[in-house]
Amino acid sequence: MKSLIVLFQPLCLVWLLLAGWLVHACWRRRWRSAALPGLAWLLLTAFTCTPLASVLVSSLEDQHPRVALTDLLPADAIICLGGGAEPSTTEPSGFHLKTSADRLSTALALWQGGKAPLLVLGGGGYRDKGSTLSEADRVAEALKPLTGTARFVLSLGACADTRDEALKVAALAQERGWKRLLLVTSANHMPRAFGAFQKAGVVVEAVPCNYLSSLNRVGELHWFHLPHADGLLVFNAWLHEVLGTWHYRRQGWQ
Question: Is the C-alpha dihedral spanning 143, 146, 150, 155 positive or negative?
């Protein structure tokens, strides 16, 4: 049943149609007309039928070692970078969890495990009906019943990007005398985030989570399968970080 669902997805149908066109063009010896469709088919095959995207993103995820939460020493605060949720006016909870929600669950596990007395939330801002909604503010408000009081959760407000989060944390660290901080973010994002915090003068210990590579999630790679959109999503995560790192280094932010 699952294979049939994948087979009839638009991505798989396009891949099959391109393959059919290539076979027809090659049979007719129309080599020139097969060149561009052939290139498109090869790109789709590489990024949606093979583990290439997982291998690429694992090269980012493996730059910081995986950690066991029980082995971490206590810290002054847990810094959870945004991206795991977004404000929502339609969800009953008032926010929507995204694919990187592991950031929030990891940070909460650290806090509940007594690794730090304070949870600091980052995140972007979203425009809705003329007003700006803050991811961090909304999630902090939702966590109040869990913590019993707001003083255990601190919001950075609406942040422009990871560098903005790093600068705001740097100001708080100087103001409050923080010496040891745990930085929680997606494993593929950790190299750029860690560099940005170091550049801002903040000493952090990396706690990577939200692994996207199948090699890191299930311990194996599927070498060939029907086209699946997950490959494009993983490749997009890798490309976003590669271009983001280039931009940060060009700006002197890392």
Answer: negative
Can you give the pTM of this predicted structure? 0.89
Q: Which two tokens stand for residue 64?
A: 């910081």
* C-alpha closest to that of 210 among 97, 101, 63: 101
End-to-end Cα spacing for the chain? 47
Domain, as residue range, for 36 = 2-60+216-243
196 vs 139, more confident: 196
User: Residue 85 belongs to a domain with what CATH number?
Assistant: 3.40.50.620
Taking a C-beta distance cutoff of 8 angstroms, is the pair 75, 205 a contact? yes
pLDDT at 218 over 70: no
Asked if 37 and 112 sit in the same domain, the reply is: no
Please report, rounded to a whole number, the percentage of residues in the chain having pLDDT higher than 90. Answer: 54
The helix (run of H) or strand (run of E) holding residue 55 is helix 52-61
b/e burial code for range 45-75 (CB count within 10 A of at least 16 → b): bebbbbbbbbebbbebbbebeeeeeeebeeb
CA distance 186 to 104: 10
